[in-house]
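Go through this one:
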Amino acid sequence: MPRIEDANDLPLATYRARFLPARLDPIPPNAQAQGPFSISFESSTTVTAVDFKACFDLIASSSANAYAASSIGWSPVKKRKEMKLPDLRYLLLRDTSAQIQGFLSFMLTYEDGHEVVYCYELHLAPLVQKQGLGKHLMSLMETVGSNAEVARSMLTVFVENDAALKFYERLGYSKDDYSPEPRKMRNEVVKMPTYVILSKSLQQWDTDDEELEDG
């Protein structure tokens, strides 16, 4: 069985033990002003209905308008269906009352023939932003990718979300070769993409391959 499929078929506890650190927290010290926080690991089939709704509400409140204005469009039904994809995994950020304050969902998958870890969603409640929590969640996802020996980490960002673009750039992400380019229409009007695909190499051999291609 191919490696990605084999990893995704693992029981949740085995997946966690194999690909994630022994402890998902403590959260970085500068986050303790609103904390302490804890992180739990779930799959799309083990996340509770209450937590699922909390995650969906974070997406809707922060990104529904951006989805609606993009070529992707906003559909609550389609988004909930996507959130239930069998191979999707969740890192859930909780406060001291066990309420969801943020989450990251991701999947070990294929993108254009490459084995990758793909970040589907990263959302934080406004009160817990800019405390290093997003960076911490991203580092956990990248650890999964590194331990699973996939080539790179990937994600999609709306071009209008300048703050997110700068955040991911600080983490080492750059525009992927497969990100959509502007298209010239029949009337000579240039249609600009509404989103960009970013990626980051997780393995030294992937970086070496890129350097050989550039050379």
